[in-house]
Amino acid sequence: MKARPIGSIALAIFVALWSHPAVSLACAVCFGAPDDPMTKGLNMAVFVMIGVTYVVIIGMLAMFIRLAVRSRRRTATAQQGEHVAC
């Protein structure tokens, strides 16, 4: 009878233990418990991240609109021959 290498036995034990259902239980968020505090906290964190993203995008949009308006005003003032201050 041929002896098996110890590495393949260790790998088989590792795979058997790793695939055991108790090891792979999901947390309350992944499992889908809507009333769990962890789920509520994660939902609020996602809403805050989305809110911060929208605030930054709106701020950038407002900045570009303001720059466009200022550019039009300066162009109109320069075309009228008036002095344009920086």
Structural descriptors:
86 residues, mainly alpha, 3 helices
Question: What does this entry look like structurally?
Answer:
The protein is an all-alpha fold. Helix content is 70%, strand content 0%. It is built from 3 helices and no strands. The chain has one domain. The model has no long low-confidence stretch (mean pLDDT 83).
- Average pLDDT number: 83
- Count the beta strands: 0
- What does the main sheet amount to? none
Briefly note the structural class of the backbone.
mainly alpha
In angstroms, what is the radius of gyration?
Answer: 31 Å
Shape summary: elongated
In DSSP terms (H or I, runs of 4 or more residues), the helix count works out at 3
Give the helix proportion (percent range): 55-70%
Element string (H = helix, E = strand): HHH
**Count of the domains:** 1
Strand percent estimate: under 5%
Summarize the entry for a quick read.
With 86 residues, the chain is mainly α.
Topology at a glance:
Layout: H1 6-18, H2 28-31, H3 37-79
